[in-house]
Automatic annotation (TrEMBL), chains A, B:
<keyword id="KW-0378">Hydrolase</keyword>
<comment type="similarity">
    <text>Belongs to the peptidase S28 family.</text>
</comment>
<keyword id="KW-0732">Signal</keyword>
<dbReference type="InterPro" id="IPR008758">
    <property type="entry name" value="Peptidase_S28"/>
</dbReference>
<keyword id="KW-0325">Glycoprotein</keyword>
<dbReference type="InterPro" id="IPR042269">
    <property type="entry name" value="Ser_carbopepase_S28_SKS"/>
</dbReference>
<feature type="signal peptide">
    <location>
        <begin position="1"/>
        <end position="21"/>
    </location>
</feature>
<dbReference type="InterPro" id="IPR029058">
    <property type="entry name" value="AB_hydrolase_fold"/>
</dbReference>
<keyword id="KW-0645">Protease</keyword>
<dbReference type="Pfam" id="PF05577">
    <property type="entry name" value="Peptidase_S28"/>
</dbReference>
<protein>
    <recommendedName>
        <fullName>Prolylcarboxypeptidase</fullName>
    </recommendedName>
</protein>
Length: 499, 499
């Protein structure tokens, strides 16, 4: 497994949206003083009432030779919607099943009444049920040719126009785009490219600058390392040294078998390549933990304790330990992530993200437009050195999909760092989130706003309100609502002037 | 020839760019009091020094399955360019040979020194030499699939980034997009979609609202009629009555032969359909005259006198004349347009625009994105009634190209009338120009400005400065330069702040 494969895994996991959380303890204090629990309690499920609908979309908005259409799925909830002075909150769906995103974007549900809002969740083409060519959608690069951000944004545009045309009372209502992670990028880009259709955008944890040379490729892994470094003494240093321990053990006679047993792997390691795969999988776990380092117990990919990085770091207090002990510590740490519930019989190094995410689709996107370089040097970060090798990346993409990535396209299309002429976008970032390194973390103008949430992980603000939310995210959400209300109010002022 | 065929011809002719003019008389007075001359004098040719260059562009910017590239041609002139405080004026090429546009956009050459500007003229894909599939480019809808405004704008974006990357000193310079007619739309849309690449746009005679139901379809022909109505007593009324005269004559025994001889047609009429074709051709001539109704002698498609509509109207003073006399008057009027030089032996009803324009390409664009409805009723305009029939139009397109137009797409993509969130675009319009009906003729905000040039025809302001220019266009150009300088100055202020 090369550095590109690692990257793809990282990207996939990075873009997961946290599931509804299971609060255990108040978490208004700094991470180092927070309690954590090893007992997992599930949170009562909130029933979200929405209708599932479909719209016929052109497979190709940008060409006329193929006039085929497909059914795009979207969800709509209008319980709190008011025709008089209301609004439409439009979730720009990302790389997964839209019902899963809908269930995991509690913020929109929480503010619907206050905003008199109709909620719309639009599924991204090639994900969930919105497959342009059904089962053939991923069969080859010809069928995948219409999986681009531009096509996705055009779907959103057509859907909004359709809703305004067909829903009585919706015509003269302001629409706001919201999204997290890749969906946050889409929300921001949608406002940039279609400002006539949305009055503003909330782009949560959207690394719109994690492209080309806009940010150093090592920023991402440095942030992961910082998270681990501040979560326990010697933690990041221990992990930095653990890679060599794994290598040393693997090289010994029965090393692969010993490693397989020590880590309770479901499938034993049999060759040297498997060791690299193992390391990639472990790296991915640490990265993933940094992203979901929420201050309360949660049940995302796996049930997790509050501040899971801190829990993991319990096992990395000492780095001058024998290799075999180091490996046992790694096993304990991995168990926090993969076996917090105590149900797992073994650890599966092939385990990837929830099936609600579209693995194939994202892999293709990462091989075309969504090229987001990351690298590590093992000095300023705790990972093994991996340079960013565009040539190798491109060759791997060509082998896998028959396409070559165009790494400079996204900045050409969406402006790179030169986006100051746009307006009404909030970029919110979790300070702990490795993706914040590619995000907008400083105000660009007085209408292009950045919020950094102290001790926040990946798009914490989009999650459902929780009695144990830290003040930082409560304030963030209040600020977001304030700005969105201002956009809505400005819209109605303009509307009245026109009439 | 159906109403669609007429429309296509109208569109084609409408989008011609006037050639360098031949001044004859000062023209600061109202049209009705202006002198005109029947003697044609050619103007000394100005030698424009530019380099012809090529850039490799992706055939498909919005898909990765086809990775083929083609050579896009562009012209560059840097005689007056200054690295220190200079600018780049970027002509967004429209539907024809870029050298022809370059030669006919004297305004850019005239202001180059004052703006310390590098001039760039980018050829539009599928026109001139910039053919994505060479001789096969127009062979079928598969090869034509990449002829869209979005692809053209993406070419411009890539070219600007390439120039900034490769020309020493160009990196930190402001770029302004300029264009006329369809090229004017592209300039405006380019600023809307790529504001990170151009600080502003001058969109001359750009009917960005001549789409869908944004303006009534009859506006265009009404303006033509008004032009004729104010250019001579009874002029538009005579033309309105002339269509029945043609029909009556055609229905008589030897009518077709008589008509063919009376009008000195190169190819005699032989069937009833030819009569409709004849009427379409005559209509097109009047429309064309309205567009090039310049206040001085010019040599555009044909050599023309000053105020050619006024000249034509000399032959339409009386409408209560026998049909045969009416036809002789039509012949005289057509002669003004087609035989001002006195060289023509006969009139050719197949005659279309200069070969510098891409007839095939535009016909395809009009059948896909660029659907610009026009209609006439014969009451409020001087033409025979032609309703706008989208079904028929679409069927004709499907027969011709195997594609169906998407008339609502351009407003969805580019905002229709809801464009107020954009900035730094000047929309200039000639009051006489029928396309002004679909143009932006009132300021939208204090940075989205409209200029209407009294007594101006189709993008008069982009033509070379002329000693006999009316004051109106002189003032217009001065205002345009003032705004462009402001954008440039704002750019450098921002740049200094950043450094």
């Amino acid at each position: 497994m090369g550095c590109r494969s690692l990257l793809l895994l990282l990207l996939l996991l990075a873009f997961l949206t946290p599931a509804a959380s299971s609060p255990v303890s108040p978490s208004l204090r700094a991470p180092s003083s927070l309690p954590w629990s090893t007992s997992f309690k599930s949170r009562p499920t909130i029933t979200l009432k929405y209708s599932i609908r479909y719209i016929q979309q052109k497979v190709d908005h940008f060409g006329f030779n193929i006039d085929r259409t497909f059914k795009q799925r979207y969800l709509i909830a209008d319980n709190y919607w008011k025709e008089d002075g209301g609004s439409i909150l439009f979730y720009t769906g990302n790389e997964g099943d839209i019902i899963w995103f809908c269930n995991n974007t509690g913020f929109m549900w929480d503010i619907a009444e206050e905003m008199k809002a109709m909620l719309v969740f639009a599924e991204h083409r090639y994900y969930g049920e919105s497959l342009p060519f059904g089962a053939d959608s991923f069969s080859d690069s010809r069928h995948l040719n219409f999986l681009t951000t531009e096509q996705a944004l055009a779907d959103f545009a057509k859907l909004i126009k359709y809703l305004k045309r067909t829903i009585p009372g919706a015509r003269n209502q302001p629409v706001i785009a919201l999204g997290g992670s890749y969906g946050g990028m889409l929300a921001a880009w949608f406002r940039m490219k279609y400002p006539h259709l949305v009055v503003g955008a909330l782009a949560s944890s959207a690394p719109i600058w994690q492209f080309n040379d806009l940010v150093p490729c090592d920023t991402f892994m440095k942030i992961v390392t910082t998270d681990f470094g501040r979560s326990g003494p010697n933690c990041s240093e221990s992990i930095r040294r653990s890679w060599d321990a794994i290598s040393r053990l693997a090289k010994k006679g029965p090393g692969l078998r010993w490693l397989s047993e020590a880590l309770h792997l479901c499938t034993p390691l049999t060759k040297w390549q498997d060791v690299q795969h193992l390391k990639d999988w472990i790296s991915e776990t640490w990265v993933n933990l940094a992203m979901v380092d929420y201050p309360y117990e949660s049940n995302f990919l796996q049930p997790l304790p509050a501040w899971p990085v801190k829990v993991v770091c319990q096992y990395f207090k000492y780095y001058n330990v024998p290799d075999t002990l180091m490996l046992q510590n790694i096993f304990q740490a991995l168990n926090v992530y993969y076996n917090y519930s105590g149900q797992a019989k073994c650890l599966n190094v092939s385990e990837t993200a929830t099936s609600s995410l579209g693995v194939l689709g994202w892999s293709y996107q990462a091989c075309t437009e969504m090229v987001m370089p990351t690298c590590s040097d093992g000095v300023d970060d705790m990972f093994e050195p991996h340079s960013w090798n565009m040539k190798e990346y491109s060759d791997d993409c060509f082998k896998q999909w028959g396409v070559r990535p165009r790494p400079s396209w996204i900045p050409t299309m969406y402006g790179g760092k030169n986006i100051s002429s746009h307006t009404n976008i909030i970029f919110s970032n979790g300070e702990l989130d490795p993706w914040s390194g590619g995000g907008v973390t400083k105000d660009i103008t007085d209408t292009l706003l950045a919020i950094v949430i102290p001790n926040g992980a990946h798009h914490l603000d989009l999650r459902a309100s929780n009695a144990l939310d830290p003040v930082s995210v409560q304030l963030t959400r209040a600020l977001e609502v304030k700005y969105m209300k201002q956009w809505i109010s400005d819209f109605y002022v303009r509307l009245r002037k026109m009439n």
